[in-house]
Amino acid sequence: MADDDPLDGGDDPAHPITGTPYMLAAARASVPPTRLSELLTAAQTFLADRRDRYERQYEQPLATDDYETYLVDEGHWADVGERLDWRRRDHEAVARAHRQQLLHAGKTADRHAEFETALDLREAVVIGQE
Q1: How far apart are the C-alpha atoms of 17 and 15, rounded to whole Å?
Q2: 3-state SS assignment for residue 89
Q3: What is the per-residue pLDDT across 14-24, written as a single tens digit (0 to 9) for each?
Q4: How many Å apart are CA 40 and CA 118, to the nearest integer?
């Protein structure tokens, strides 16, 4: 993609949300795509710094060579957004992107229905591998 493409960020090494999940989240977000990429990068930094906590405290339904996924309590992204001084639409956009990444991975792993059901009660967190 061109450097000035507003949807660039879908394969950003600074965050694990890629391809179709990024495009779906960007299309539905109430923030511009460039802002979404910035938010996802900030979220990756925040999450990676707390990786041990996620590993100890939350269920990990899927891990790949590129990322690990966790199912966390509802309201998680609102709490992260508060800590990072984000607006409501910012944390909602990040939550949507992480959800889309887990659902996309679920389709690939033939576990989409399982993940969809889990996300009725919890939120998704995707942490890129270092």
Answers
A1: 6
A2: helix
A3: 899 988 999 89
A4: 22
